[in-house]
Design brief:
Layout (H helix, E strand, L loop, with lengths): L21 E5 L15 H6 L1 H7 L3 E4 L3 E2 L11 E5 L6 H13 L3 E6 L9 H6 L13 E2 L20 E4 L4 E4 L14 H16 L4 E4 L42 H13 L6 E5 L5 H9 L7 E3 L11 H9 L9 E5 L8 H5 L5 H13 L4 E5 L19 H6 L42 H5 L5 H14 L1 H4 L2 E7 L3 E8 L2 E8 L5 E3 L7 E5 L3 E3 L2 E4 L4 E5 L2
Parallel strand pairs: 1-2, 1-13, 2-5, 5-9, 9-10, 10-11, 11-12, 12-13
Antiparallel strand pairs: 3-4, 6-8, 7-8, 14-15, 15-16, 16-21, 17-20, 18-21, 19-20
Helix pairs in contact: 5-6, 10-13
GO molecular function: alpha-amylase activity
Pfam families: Alpha-amylase
Keywords: Glycosidase, Hydrolase
């Protein structure tokens, strides 16, 4: 299967900076605490941008830092145009952007356009009565004759997606927490207000947006019941799992709104970047709809790997083949870990295999066609942390304990200094505990070790920058068996053969026996029969 893609050019003839970019995700609460209150902040991020730049990434993505009651840790925004005091000030944000740009790092921030906090001024006005200027800025609906909610929609975090408000004597929709009322993005005035928010941050120098949960931004205005989700024998921990969500989200008018967003970003010079977060069983269709052509979003953030229990050659092939080179098809973005998913090294490898597996996974990620996202700590091969119930912060984890362990284990503090209090994250007890094994993986300890995972990460990101075939080249799968993955990346006159052994035993391949080695992990051995890769070995060869 071949996935060739023409070189797309931006202003001046060069390809856009974001096509094939490596982007580093920062979760501000857990990156670095500059004021020692136990929570990470913007000045803490700025102090450590040199570390991020040294990895060789092209951009950072900041999870929400906006004013918020923090019921969902920043994804419940009460003021889209300000920084929550927990994280600093607008001046701190401006300083962060300035320093990032000095280091040639682009800055991407989250934008949450599907909902707000119930403390947002817009909602406070909207809920007063049915005639105020913002009465239809949110999704309101009358009760059924028996007083029950307008339809059967369920929220992601558990329970009905409707809450009664006595002032309006109506229900309001919230696809997430009760404290996160859904905006009525069907309303063009609401769209205008959101586009003004985008301009506010673009004027401050940001280089792009990740659009959070954008497929939840529009609903069926008729409030039709969702159909039943057929029983797949999977464990269902929430009422949400019992439905197919064709009515409360994924409305066909969403792409029209995305075209308006793209128009705003293009008006700032054409080099701004947009990536959609799209989850759910219909994600592939929606991602392609949201990125089709040249008037919608630049990319979509694919979840194929983030919630996979195991990493297999077949999964890699299936995910990548969903994004072939076809006219008008968008450009994918890949991540193995993020703030919502358990860290990949703990999901995909047994404890005794994690070090070797993490090295293979790093080399694999940089060889994929599309943009790649590294989550903070992934350059250290950080493991998932087990959080005891009494220390949980994640509302979903608390509500569904113990069947849903939640997101806290991937959000623990970044370890900077081995042996320091809280591994150098903060001098006071942090909002989540530092992982028991993370002190030994701290940045300063790995910085001094040329064979560390940190050193490997820098090397393989440099590899991607040095080879256009890896950044933007075509892709052809050679093999994707039970344990063996082999594919070619090609651009211009260069062809690279990428080989990976996912299995527990050694594997020998005659392919590329005499080709020059570009990079490897796990110490593959060359012999008369070809290359032998040990378990979790990886090899990139260059066709002469």
């Amino acid at each position: 299967m071949t996935m060739e893609h023409p070189t797309h050019t931006g202003p001046g003839g060069a390809r856009p900076w974001w096509r094939g970019a490596a982007i580093y995700q920062i979760y501000p609460r857990s990156f670095a605490d500059a004021n020692n209150d136990g929570v990470g902040d913007l000045p803490g991020i700025t102090r450590h941008l040199d570390h991020v730049a040294s990895l060789g990434v092209d951009a950072i993505w900041l999870s929400p830092f906006f004013t918020s009651p923090m019921r969902d840790f920043g994804y419940d925004v009460s003021d889209f145009r300000d920084v929550d005091p927990l994280f600093g000030t607008l001046a701190d944000f401006d300083a962060l952007v300035a320093r990032a740009h000095e280091l040639n790092l682009k800055v991407i921030i989250d934008q949450v356009y599907s909902h707000t906090s119930d403390q947002h001024a817009w909602f406070q006005e909207s809920r007063q009565d049915r005639t105020n200027p913002k009465a239809d800025w949110y999704v309101w609906a009358d009760a059924k004759p028996d007083g029950s909610p307008p339809c059967n929609w369920q929220s992601v975090f558990g329970g009905p997606a409707w809450t009664w408000d006595a002032r309006r004597r109506q229900y309001y929709l919230h696809n997430f927490l009760t404290e996160q009322p859904d905006l009525n993005v069907h309303n063009p005035v609401v769209q205008d207000a959101l586009l003004d928010v985008a301009r506010f941050w673009l004027d401050r120098g940001v280089d792009g947006f990740r659009l959070d949960a954008i497929n939840f931004s529009m609903h069926d205005p008729a409030f039709t019941d969702n159909p039943v989700n057929p029983d797949t024998h999977a464990v269902r921990t929430r009422p949400f799992d019992f439905q197919l969500h064709s009515k409360n989200m994924s409305h066909p008018d969403i792409p029209k709104f995305l075209e308006r967003i793209r128009g705003v970003l293009d008006s700032y010079g054409g080099d701004r970047f947009t990536v959609a977060e799209v989850g759910g069983p219909d994600a592939d269709r929606e991602m392609k709809a949201f990125t089709a052509g040249n008037a919608r979003l630049n990319s979509a953030y694919d979840f194929s790997f983030l919630y996979a229990d195991t990493l297999t050659p077949a999964l890699v092939r299936k995910a990548l083949e969903l994004w072939p080179d076809e006219p008008g098809l968008g450009w994918p973005s890949w991540a193995f870990s993020n703030h919502d998913a358990p860290r990949c090294v703990s999901r995909w490898a047994k404890p005794q295999d994690r070090a070797a597996f993490a090295r293979m996974a790093a080399l694999l990620l940089v060889t994929l066609r599309g943009n790649i996202f590294f989550y903070q700590g992934e350059e250290l091969a950080l493991t998932q942390v087990s959080i005891p119930f009494e220390q949980l912060q994640d509302p979903e984890a608390i509500a569904n304990w113990p069947l849903t362990l939640g997101r806290d284990g991937a959000r623990t503090p970044m370890p900077w200094t081995s042996g320091a209090p809280n591994a150098g994250f903060s001098t006071v007890q942090p909002w989540l505990p530092v992982g028991a094994d993370h002190d030994a993986m701290a940045v300063d300890r790995q910085q001094a070790d040329p064979h560390s995972h940190l050193a490997l990460t820098r090397r393989v990101l440099g590899l991607r920058k040095a080879h256009e075939a890896l950044a933007v080249g075509g892709m052809r799968f050679v093999e994707a068996g039970q344990h063996v993955l082999a594919f070619e990346r090609s651009h211009g006159d260069e062809t690279l053969l990428c080989l990976f052994n996912f299995g527990p035993g050694a594997w020998t391949t005659p392919e590329g026996a005499n080709w020059p080695v570009v990079d490897s992990v796990g110490e593959p051995q060359s012999g008369t029969q070809g290359w032998t890769l040990p378990p979790f070995g990886g090899l990139v060869l260059s066709r002469p």
